[in-house]
Records
---
Amino acid sequence: MEYDERIAELMMNFDLLNALGSDNNLSSFVLAEHHRPVYSEWIMPLVKAIRDLHPVSFTYVNYRNDCTEKPFSVLPHYLKESNRRWYLLAYDGSVMKTFGIDRIRNLRVDDTCTFKRHTDIDVAELFRDCYGLWNDTAMPVEDIELRYDALDGRFVKSDPIHHSQRILADTPDELRISLRLRITNDFVMELLSRSRSLEVIKPQYLRERVRKIYEEALKRNS
């Protein structure tokens, strides 16, 4: 999808949300998800900053470090949605970083200057080998094999976990699939979302990781 098409699609989504909140009967037949991102007012300023090539600055809340806040001045390039959350992809110096928009505070758009957009980015390639937004290139791309019962298998077939998903076996009793991607925390959390019948065939260390999560959960809930 071209850049202008991404922006058009994003604008359409927000037009729909605005319409749902207005005084008309659209909400009587369009059922919006009740989980909406916090601080979504940053979306439209970021869209305009990306379009008009303006730098932005903000403070960012780090959930993994006791919610400490750190200032950033970045060059915004893309907005990406993942798991009902919006993320900003921006250059901090020479490094592209990902920022959860719900963790951005005090956004400022510097409309007094512009930057030169990086045009050599293959965004599809950037996320090809990961699930969600976390693509740590220091992690290996691995072959994964999973098994589900027939019921869960129907959902996994209709909504593939990843573009690399391939069906190895599809019987009245089970679905077995293969995947090839980096085993990140986001991917493990996705596996656990359908843990009712999940069996990790390989790699062994992922099987052990999932088993340990189950054992710790069992202890907490005994």
---
Amino acid sequence: MVRLLFAALGEADISKSSQADGRRSNGLTYKDAGVDIDAGNALVEAIKPLAKSTGRSGADSALGGFGGLFDLKATGYKDPVLVAGNDGVGTKLLVAIEADRHDTVGIDLVAMCVNDLVVQGAEPLFFLDYFATGKLSIEAATSVISGIAAGCREAGCALIGGETAEMPGLYGENEYDLAGFSVGAVERDSILPRDIGAGDIVLGLPSSGFHSNGYSLIRKVIEGAGHGYDDPAPFDSSISLGEALLTPTRIYIKPCLALVKAGLAHGFAHITGGGLLENIPRVLPDDLAVDLNVDALPLPPMMTWLGEAGGMSAVEMARTFNCGVGMIVIVSANDEQTAMDVLTDNGETPRRLGTVAERGDGDAVRIKHLSDSWGLP
């Protein structure tokens, strides 16, 4: 967004100057090559109020500079460590493009970045986006960026800039790609994970669906089953399949930061690609494991349908999808009820999933009777 504004203004001025003195008046323009500067300028004007709506302490500058400015001192941190992360939405974008619905993938983009920051105890401070397309649609791009702004407001971070690139030849006319970048801060003595030990309690915060992972597999199953995105969802006839699949990724910033500020969190695990089996071990010491109670892990209907339609095993589901749990929270056994209360007060519906235990020679994530409970091989 930021860079596009300056590139568009600069080249527009050059074009006007060339036409005024009669030079190259019949020559090619950037628009002839497939890049519409005027559309870019119009998009910048359309998204300025969206970016402004995400303002917070430390972010006072308007869009239009060569770089976004942020005043870390204004946030009040005493001994801050910066935490940075970037991510995308993956092939979920293909569902949005085919369903012609673009208002939720921006929320996904923010969620995938900021949820990774809070895992280390960090508060997201600011966000930048990258939107690349073959031919700029102001309507679709504004819809995407409105979702980004909505995600930033929910996460409490400022949208301070980004890049919009129109690249004919690299992308088709109706195609686009998204990437996001976020920076957060955490007090040095609050960096997570820390103090995880045997006997700690594992809590789970529910997901809203598939979030933004596994869509290459999801799309393959849907194609094989012969469903269209406008069809009623086979697991919920009240909505279309496209609507169900485009449910945005949940943003867990407020409840997780409440635990951090209360000194209750030992660790978090954002359940993204790799599912429960691959993500939880990332925050555990090598000598520890988690024992999860399968009765506390009912597979959501959309995932049950997908597993059955795709003939997938329970293990494949658990290592690919979030299986209904978008964020894992690890707390001391002595703090379990207090942590549950804090999460509930912040709009969550946490459930106890299991405990941390010595690993021994076993796996880092142990779920007994998984196949029997989920009805998958």
---
Amino acid sequence: MRAIILAAGRGMRLQQASDQPLPKCLLRFGGLSLLERHLRLLKNAGVDAVVLALGFRHDLVEAELDRLGWKPRPEIVLNPRYELGSVLTVHTVAGAMTRGGDVLLMDADVLYHERIMTALTTGERPVNRVLIDRDFEAGEEPVKVCVRAGVPIELRKQLEPGLKYDIIGESVGFFRFDEAGARRLAALVAGYVESERAHLPHEEAIRDLLREGSQSVEVADVTGAPWIEIDFPNDVTRAGHEVLPQLQAWQGSLK
């Protein structure tokens, strides 16, 4: 199993100080950067093969890896046109996507409980899997996952009127693909780039994968597990004041 962490974006909505903006994966909570937390949780789950898709201030991320002395050192793939969109970032890691075996595709800007990693990685057989949290704030920002008869049928912020589903939840931003699923996603992403849609979020290509029905996809419900995606200044506050205290009990296991 191989993890691909998407950490190329600038994070403009975070409104950081213009003189020292950081890649979001270097934001620190409880003394650990989000990147270090990802790496420790992956290691605890038995995932040592890690690919970092970098762009904005990649030098700072590489310096963090130097500081950590992480072994084995993650493979780094650069997207020099990171400001264009995350579809292009996923396209830059197509080689890692199609190398064989199960692939974890993960947003870097998430602070989360180990239960979420367990839901993503558990099981020995190859599988395609999406994670959902049914307890989410309604609105235009969350990427919603709609499930009908146990099958994910939609993945988008804006839902079509009249869409029928049994369960709705927010996507955590973490996905698992088996070898066939990863190859198909890489092909869909390539199609986006070739048709001048590289500026779109990568979830659009994953949505296409779900909706075409070419791959069997499981849904793992992580409702109740603490997590937050960090996009806005208020998310930083909530991460430190609300989510982090819920993680302190297990933070000692991140070794």
